[in-house]
C-alpha cells in the first residue's frame, strides 16, 4: 500500500485528481511488477487501478492485488478505461509522465480523455523515487553481490593475450548464472590506451602486460540495477600509473567522506575534484562525480558541479571519479553509497587498492 499512498500524495501535492502511469519503470515502481505493460491509474484519494492484458493478467493478479490495486483485463482501450475511472471518481485532471510518454501516446490519451486535463508531472516521479525504501536497497545490494562475485570469478582470465570482448562476455555470463536478470547497461571493458575512453566498448583488442583494464558494469535483481567500476593493472604498473590510480582513489574516498544528508551534490563533486585538480589532472576528469540509480541506471540526485540540490536520507549515489589521459590510459573507481537512517553505508564491498593481476 505504501507505493499507492505515495502516488496518491503526489497527485494531491500537484493539485490533480489522480496519476496516470503508462511507462516501464514507473509502472514497475507503482506495482512492484517487473516488465509490466499496461496502464495504472491512482486517484488522489488512494484508489489504485491496474489495467493489463492476457500476457500478464494471471501473474499481475497475484503480485499486484496485494499492493492495494484492482487488477483488470479490459475489453476497451486503455484511454477509454482511464476516462471511465475519471468519470466514476469525479476526476478532472491527471498527472502524466511528460518525461517518458511519447507524443503519440499523449495524443491518444488526450483525445479520449474529454474534460480531463493532462498535467505534466515534471520531476515528480523522479523525486518520489529518489528516496529508497529498504526493499529497493536490498535488491540493489543483491545485484551488487552478484556483480562482485562474477568479477572475482573472471579476474584470472584478465591476462596478456586475452581478448577484451571475450572476457567481458564471460563477466556478463557469470552474472546471469549467479541470478542477474540482465546487465545494468552494456558492460564497459577497455584496456591499455583504450582505457582513456570513459565509456569505451569491449572490442577485439588483446590485453597486454602493462595495460590498465577498466571494467564498469552492473547486474539486475527485481528490476533494480547495480553499478561498479574497477581498474586493474596487468603484469606491472609504472610509477605514473600508480600515481594516477592513487589520485583517483584518494579523490573517491574524499567524495564518499563528503557525502551526507544536507550537503549539495555540487559539494560532494568538489571534494573529489579538488584532489584531482591539486594533483594536476583536473582537465582529465570531464564527467560528473556520480548519479543515483534504481529502476533506471541513471536517476537523480546526482553529484556534479552544476547540481546544487541537497542530498537527503534515503538517497543512493555512485561516487566515480576518473582520470583519462588520451592515448595513454585511464582510471576510474566507482562505488554505490547509501545515506541510511543509521548512517552512511557503502554498498560496494569489492576491494579497491591497486591490484596487479
Ligand atoms: Zn558505472
Ligand atoms: Zn555509474
SSE topology sketch:
Blueprint: H1 2-13, E1 18-21, H2 24-31, E2 39-43, E3 48-51, H3 57-64, E4 69-72, H4 78-88, E5 93-96, H5 103-112, E6 117-120, H6 124-130, H7 134-154, H8 164-177, E7 188-191, E8 212-217, E9 220-221, E10 224-225, E11 228-233, H9 239-258, H10 265-278, E12 290-292, E13 299-303, E14 316-319, E15 322-325, E16 329-332, E17 335-340, E18 343-346
Parallel strand pairs: 1-5, 3-4, 5-6
Antiparallel strand pairs: 1-2, 2-3, 7-8, 8-11, 9-10, 12-13, 14-17, 15-16, 17-18
Bound molecules: zinc ion (2 copies).
The site of one zinc ion (ZN) has 5 residues, from loops.
Strand order of the main beta sheet, please? 4-3-2-1-5-6
Proportion of helical residues: 25-40%
Q: How many DSSP helices? A: 10
> What's the CATH C level of the largest domain?
Alpha Beta
Shape: elongated
Bound molecules: zinc ion
What would you report as the Rg, rounded to the nearest angstrom? Answer: 23 Å
CATH superfamily caption of the largest domain: Creatinase/methionine aminopeptidase superfamily
The fold-level CATH name of the largest domain is Creatine Amidinohydrolase
Strand content: 15-25%
Annotated CATH architecture of the largest domain: Alpha-Beta Complex
Beta strands, count = 18
- First-to-last CA distance: 49 Å
Mean pLDDT: 97
Strand/helix succession? HEHEEHEHEHEHHHEEEEEHHEEEEEEE
